[in-house]
Amino acid sequence: MLLLVFCAASVAAFFSYRGFRYFRIRKLDSESVNQGKMAAAEFLRLDALVHQKEFYRDPKLDRTTICSQLGIGRHALNQLLNDYAGGMSVPAYINKVRLDVACDILKTCPGKTLADIAGDVGMSPQNFRIQFKNTFGLTPNEYRQAL
Which DSSP string do the residues of 74-93 spell out, in sequence order? Predict the structure, then answer.
């Protein structure tokens, strides 16, 4: 994961990459700079929780679980996603993470069945196929064949 936080001349930018690209520039005062750094750190905690601890594998993963694990409220979680994930909703963020992981599995494990991949990322096979097609414009099989 690449993280760059840039603060200068009352302007701040935050860039990160892990299946997402985040970008935010705004005029800041010194208090806002400190709050922005804390919010960026909170978002990195969220990203680590979902990716490194593999919370995406839980089919019942929801806003309440994430909030309790991070120790933040619903509004704070929504604000983090609004600021650092392009305004995604919690379900959209979770699905994006799941589908990014699924793409990695499709690339690295060509013999793995789609049902197994769906289970590995916390989705049912039918929902996996629908979400994949809606997101990438290809079914998982079509994606795999195009590799």
Answer: HHHHHHHHHHHSTT--HHHH
User: Which pLDDT belongs to residue 35?
Assistant: 56
Question: What is the percent of the chain with per-residue pLDDT over 70, rounded to a whole number?
Answer: 76
pTM for this prediction? 0.73
What structural domains does the chain harbor? 2-88 (no CATH), 95-146 (1.10.10.60)
- Do residues 68 and 74 make contact, with C-beta atoms less than 8 angstroms apart? no
Cβ atoms of 42 and 5 within 8 Å: the answer is no
Of the CA atoms within 13 Å of residue 15, those in its CB half-sphere come to: 4
Residue 8 to residue 146: CA distance in whole angstroms? 44
- As a whole number of angstroms, the longest Cα–Cα distance in the chain is 53
Q: Could you tell me the two tokens for 100?
A: 């990014």
* Residue with more model confidence, 20 or 68: 68
First and final C-alpha spacing in the chain:
24
Given a cut of 50, whether residue 25 has pLDDT beyond it is no
Query: Which helix H or strand E contains 56, and what residues bound it?
Result: none
